[in-house]
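Annex B. Sample input.
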Amino acid sequence: MWEIDKILDEKEKVLWEGKPKFLPFFLGGSLPLFFFGLIFLLVGLLTIIMGIKKGQTTFLLLPLFWIGVLIVFGIPIYNALVFSRIHYAITNKRVILQKGLVGRDFEMVDFDQISNAEVRVGIIDKIFGGGSGSILISTAGTFTYGRHGPIQRPYTIRNIDSPYEVFKFFKKVSHDVKTDIEYPNKYSPDSNPGYNTEYSTKKK
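Annex B, continued. Sample output.
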């Protein structure tokens, strides 16, 4: 369900909106862990079978089995349920990511805070998404430091159709808005045609 319009500022306009393609989103969030979960599940099942033969019932408390069940079945079910809640938007002010299963969560990235962005098209995108891909957006806040150095957790517009075209549009809007924000300064002339982003070009 699209709910991004509830948090738009006055005069803020949505220039692009989209959501992930189902198969690459569904598989990309569960497939990497599926094989590990399957191993846990199979080992757990073997232990259960051996326990039944010995007349034991404590196998029901076996953590390995339930971890396998959670990974193999829980993560795909979660991805399927949350899919309808995922929406993305590029406005004339920022990037907005809507997510959340029960409640609604919004992540917002102002253009002037963006330090880097890139496109990724993975094997799952190529096989199941017809060339879908993800846009990763980094800011100063997406970097944290662990024991082994910096860790990056970028904002991600996942598995969208036509990722390169959307990325080009995103970069253009980001450049235009940043320019219009930064342009008024003591060295600039009295007027500037701007980049049609409807920001004021008058000196402050």
